[in-house]
Structure formats: structure tokens, C-alpha cells
Design goal:
By secondary structure, this protein is mainly alpha-helical. It has one domain. The protein has 3 helices and 2 strands.
């Protein structure tokens, strides 16, 4: 359960960051942000394989925020996907921050 709540929080942060960077995406209220994050989180948790194919059309839909134009929607989708990916790499299934070790192998 904790992991699910953390993922909802991650979705909200990613959506907020996207709205700050992409002109044309405006969040109207904190409630709209939370609603959109919960909606995206539930859909990702329940039907993740299908969501991977449907992400662009779902992000074009306004879930309590305004998207002005196709390029804003496309840019927002790319940034939202990037932010969510990076944050999910760092946060494990239990909602805890994971340490990523990079090991370099040198072969002769």
C-alpha cells in the first residue's frame, strides 16, 4: 500500500514539473493535480501494459488541467514519461528509495 501511495505522489510531482516546463499545460488547482495523479496511478497499476500504448491519448485528455495544442501534449507526454521513469527507477516497489550501483567491467 505504501508503494502505491508513493507512486501516486511521484505521478503528482511529475505532472507538476511537466506543467512548469511545458507551455500550454496548466494545472487549475491542487485538487485537479491530485485527481489526475490518482487517476493516472490507478490506471498504471491496473492496466499498465495497455497504458503504455494509450499514454499519449490519455495525456491529451484533460484530467483537470488544460493542454493547448498537439505539441504541448506531445512535449508534456515525453517529459511526464521521463520524470516518472527516473523517479520510478529510484523508488522500489515498497516505496523506499533504492540505491543504484553501477559497475564498470574492463575487459582486455
Amino acid at each position: 500500500m505504501r508503494g502505491l501511495v508513493v507512486r501516486w505522489l511521484v505521478s503528482a510531482i511529475a505532472l507538476y514539473l511537466t506543467s512548469l516546463i511545458v507551455r500550454g499545460i496548466e494545472i487549475q488547482s491542487l485538487a485537479a493535480l491530485v485527481f489526475a495523479a490518482v487517476t493516472i496511478g490507478v490506471l498504471n497499476a491496473v492496466v499498465r501494459p495497455l497504458i503504455l500504448l494509450l499514454t499519449l491519448p490519455l495525456n491529451i485528455l484533460t484530467l483537470g488541467f488544460n493542454v493547448h495544442g498537439f505539441w504541448s501534449a506531445l512535449g508534456g507526454w515525453l517529459l511526464m514519461s521521463f520524470f516518472t521513469f527516473v523517479i520510478n527507477v529510484l523508488i522500489g516497489e515498497t516505496g523506499r528509495i533504492e540505491i543504484v550501483h553501477v559497475r564498470q567491467v574492463v575487459r582486455f
